[in-house]
Structures are given as structure tokens and as C-alpha cells.
């Protein structure tokens, strides 16, 4: 908020109404020029139901936003890798392909596998949401001792809703 104020943007920060249809925590930054909805999601499981819940949540948030000015959705999600095939698919599902550094994951004991589905394609085909940018942040380092955390994955997406 301070950054927006320094740029002379009068911004309002609020928690998005959270009714029974939107189970994800959603926060909205609203200015006279644009709106950003921030969706926080924990992929506690990498199974299809959890992935579809995120996709459905993004679509439901989109349907509640006024698109009268430039509007964006920012998704911040995280996942702890486990031994399941679904967990090993998450990077490919998020990016639409395996990341370039699969050898680095393998050195950490994480053998990534390709995904038949991709979040961007699912959002486009099911909810007409397109043109997002999807990123992985891995590995991360612990602040306390600078040790690398290999089993934790942070995902982010920036999705413009206007053309």
C-alpha cells in the first residue's frame, strides 16, 4: 500500500466478501485506475479436486469483480511435495511444461513428471480466462539459517481480466 501511495495512487485494501461460493481467502486492492484481487491458496493436496477448487475459485472471484477498469487477479499458492504422482505434476500443471531445471529437482529427490492438464488451458477452456503469467519459485531458503528448502514450492500467477 505504501508503494501505491508513493506513486500517488489512492488505494483501498479490503478482504473480498467471502460467501459460501468462494472458499479461498481473497483480498482486493482498489484504486481509481485499477483493481487487483489477490487469491491465497494452499495446495494441501495436489489431487484434481484441489486443483479444480483453485480453478473454480479464480472463476468465481472473476465473476464478482467489476471489469469497468483494468482488473487483475494475482494468485499466490504453495505446495509441499509428497511422494504422489499428482504432487510431482504440480510444476508442469502450473507452467504448462516441465521446468527447465528438472535435474535440480531430481538432485533434491523430487522426480517431476509431466501433466496432461495445464491450469492456463483449464481456465481458458472452462471459464474463458486467458493471458496469465505463471511462475514457480523454487527452491527457497530459510530466513533463520539460510538452508535450502527443497520440498516446498511457491507458485504465483498474474492474470489480467481486461483486454
Chain-wise SSE layout:
Blueprint: H1 2-6, E1 12-15, E2 26-30, E3 35-42, H2 48-64, E4 71-80, H3 85-95, H4 102-107, H5 119-127, E5 133-137, E6 140-141, E7 148-149, E8 152-160
Parallel strand pairs: 3-4
Antiparallel strand pairs: 1-2, 2-3, 4-8, 5-8, 6-7
Helix pairs in contact: 2-5
Give your account of this protein's structure:
This protein has helices at 2-6, 48-64, 85-95, 102-107, 119-127; strands at residues 12-15, 26-30, 35-42, 71-80, 133-137, 140-141, 148-149, 152-160. With 163 residues, it is α+β, with helices and mostly antiparallel strands. It has a domain at 2-82 and 128-160. Helix 2 (48-64) crosses helix 5.
Short description:
The protein has 163 residues and is of the alpha+beta class.
Structure class: alpha+beta
What would you call the quaternary organization?
Answer: single chain
> What is the string of SSEs from the N terminus onward?
HEEEHEHHHEEEE
Unreliable residue stretches: none
Q: What general form does the structure show?
A: globular
Can you count the beta strands?
A: 8
Distance between the termini: 25 Å
- Residues in helices, as a percent range: 25-40%
Mean pLDDT: 88
Q: Strand order across the biggest sheet? A: 1-2-3-4-8-5
Proportion of residues in β-strands: 25-35%
Radius of gyration: 17 Å
List keywords for this structure.
alpha+beta, 8 strands
Amino acid at each position: 500500500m505504501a508503494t501505491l501511495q508513493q506513486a500517488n495512487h489512492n488505494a483501498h485494501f479490503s478482504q473480498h466478501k467471502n460467501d459460501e461460493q468462494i472458499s479461498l481467502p481473497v483480498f482486493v486492492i482498489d484504486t481509481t485506475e485499477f483493481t487487483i484481487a489477490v487469491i491465497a491458496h494452499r495446495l494441501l493436496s495436489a489431487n484434481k479436486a484441489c486443483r479444480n477448487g483453485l480453478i473454480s475459485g479464480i472463476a468465481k472471484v472473476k465473476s464478482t469483480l467489476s471489469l469497468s477498469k483494468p482488473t487483475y487477479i494475482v494468485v499466490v499458492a504453495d505446495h509441499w511435495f509428497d511422494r504422489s504422482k499428482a504432487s510431482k505434476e504440480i510444476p508442469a500443471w502450473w507452467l504448462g511444461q516441465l521446468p527447465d531445471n528438472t535435474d535440480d529437482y531430481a538432485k533434491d529427490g523430487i522426480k517431476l513428471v509431466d501433466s496432461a492438464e495445464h491450469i492456463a488451458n483449464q481456465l481458458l477452456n472452462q471459464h474463458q480466462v486467458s493471458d496469465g503469467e505463471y511462475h514457480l519459485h523454487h527452491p527457497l531458503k530459510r530466513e533463520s539459517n539460510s538452508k535450502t528448502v527443497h520440498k516446498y514450492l511457491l507458485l504465483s500467477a498474474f492474470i489480467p481480466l481486461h483486454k
